[in-house]
Specification:
The protein is α/β, with parallel strands linked by helices. The chain is built from 13 helices and 17 strands. The protein has 2 domains: about 220 residues, Carbamate kinase; about 150 residues, VC0802-like, CATH 3.30.2130.10. The chain binds adenosine-5'-diphosphate (ADP), aspartic acid and magnesium ion.
């Protein structure tokens, strides 16, 4: 069995849904098909929630109307029969009347907000399943809210997901295509919740891991993981192969093509992940698996909105128990630390979730001197297989960034990550400079030396 996930742009137009049907029926393998919301929908639902929360009822009503108009038009092109269209219209009318009633609830709390954003995936999957039925495909819609669970910390419960999913799938052995929602889940209180923005990738990997799928395919609008952020850097190219570790680092450190946690369940169960382009299905994409290919530097990613915290020990840093006490404070506030550097008397760390920054700072001040935090920082992360050529990688990276002030450097924790902290204003310059130096320098040198 395989798991295929289609993102927002891949389902964002009626003709794209038609192409997806062609794609998923072009091979005989049984598939679980995970769909995101239509592109733009989750943002629109979040905006409706903001209006509702601010008691701006007219604005909420207008936003709901605009979104519904989009769906009314969409289904006219999606379905090919009167009966199909009637079914599609009934789905849209039912979900939008629910959206309207949610937006009317006062006070509008985060419970309603989460139910509201879940509507994107509930709409896309029901509409697509009705289309498959109209076309006579052997498919079934399996509600993610029946099996996708997170715990009190927002972490998916793989064991429970596996148990529920296996039972439910066993009840429909003859169904070749099983459609389900990405992103949405239930929390321990039984309420509707989600796996955070971009979470449909994570759903696909959790399902793939849970059922020990043969392969997980993430279908999106680009031909695989590129060596650098194509939104910022001009000359980027797709990487054909990545190890689980390399892909996990890139996703965690900001490569938007994958939700930051996507790789974990797939890696845990050894399920390969293939990144494919819905608009160019024949392009090879990227295969993420246990194997390594030889290229030493694979890709660069960047993660924004980072805060750096500088902690000076009032005594020597290696004084017994000091670091333990520092990290206990971060643990207490469930705030993950991304980068760490140390000297004899100081330790610097970075965090991307500053919800508890004030409380953390206050507690750190009880055991250390805390300098002013640096906000608006970016972690630039170079990923690859560096074991063969350690000196070479660091020299090339530092050479590329010689004109940019570097706040922190982290290297050696693993053999596939070198991270640098810079102010976000240097991000584009840093990504472009690294791109030229790490991926095009040798070619440029060759041209110079072979020039007449
Ligand atoms: P989907 O809606 O299918 O989940 P996303 O927009 O979440 O798609 O992710 C795909 C986008 O990720 C691409 O269009 C590209 O702009 C962006 N992206 C950022 N970094 C990378 C990278 N290193 N490789 C490929 N795409 C990237
Ligand atoms: N629809 C959700 C979002 O926009 C989940 C996803 O697309 O992966 O974040
Ligand atoms: Mg995405």
């Amino acid at each position: 069995m395989q798991v295929w996930k289609f993102g927002g742009t891949s389902v964002g137009k009626p003709e794209r849904m038609h192409s997806i049907r062609q794609l998923i029926t072009s091979t005989n393998t049984r598939k679980i098909v995970v769909l995101s919301a239509l592109s733009g929908t989750t943002n629109a639902l979040i905006a409706i929630g903001e209006s509702a929360k601010a008691n701006q009822d007219d604005e909420a009503i207008q936003r709901i109307k605009d979104l519904k108009d989009h769906y009314d038009t969409f289904i006219k092109e999606l379905y090919q029969t009167e009966a199909g269209l009637a079914k599609g219209q009934a789905i849209v009318d039912k979900e939008f009347s629910f959206i309207r009633s949610l937006a009317n609830i006062k006070p509008f709390t985060s419970k309603q907000d989460k139910e509201l954003v879940a509507e994107g995936e509930l709409l896309s999957t029901q509409m697509f399943e009705a289309y498959l039925e109209e076309q006579g495909e052997n498919s079934i819609l399996l509600p993610a809210l029946e099996f996708m669970r997170i715990d009190a910390d927002g972490e998916p419960e793989l064991g429970a997901i596996e148990e529920k999913l296996t039972t439910i799938l066993g009840q429909h052995p003859g169904k070749q295509l099983v459609i389900t929602q990405g992103f949405i889940c239930r929390n321990p209180r039984g309420e509707v919740d989600n796996l955070k923005r971009g979470g449909s990738d994570y759903t696909a990997s959790l399902i793939g891991g849970a059922i020990r799928a043969e392969e997980i395919q993430i279908w999106t609008d680009i031909d695989g993981m590129h060596n650098n952020d194509p939104r910022i850097v001009k000359r980027t190219f797709p990487i054909r192969e990545l190890t689980f570790e390399e892909a996990a680092e890139l996703a965690y450190f900001g490569a938007k093509i994958l939700h930051p946690s996507t790789i974990t369940p797939a890696k845990m169960r050894g399920v390969p992940v293939r990144l494919k382009n819905t608009m160019q299905p024949d392009a090879p994409g990227t295969l993420i698996a246990t194997t390594t290919s030889d290229r030493e530097i694979k890709a660069i990613a960047a993660k924004d909105n980072i805060t750096a915290i500088y902690i000076h020990s009032t005594r020597m840093l290696n004084a017994h128990g000091f670091l333990r006490r520092v990290f206990e404070i971060f643990e207490k506030y469930k705030t993950p630390v991304d980068m760490i550097t140390t000297s004899e008397v100081s330790v610097s760390v970075t965090i991307d979730n500053d919800t508890h920054l004030d409380a953390i700072t206050a507690e750190l001040r009880e055991i250390a001197d805390i300098e002013e935090h640096d906000r608006d920082q970016t972690i630039v992360c170079v990923v690859g297989n560096f074991s063969a050529d350690k000196e070479g990688v660091a020299i090339k990276v530092l050479d590329a960034l010689k004109h940019i002030p570097l706040r922190m450097i982290s290297y050696g924790a693993s053999e596939h990550n070198l991270s640098i902290l810079i102010h976000s204003r240097y991000k584009a310059e840093a990504l472009n400079a690294l791109n030229e130096r790490l991926f095009y320098y040798e070619d440029a040198m060759k041209d110079i030396f072979t020039a007449p």
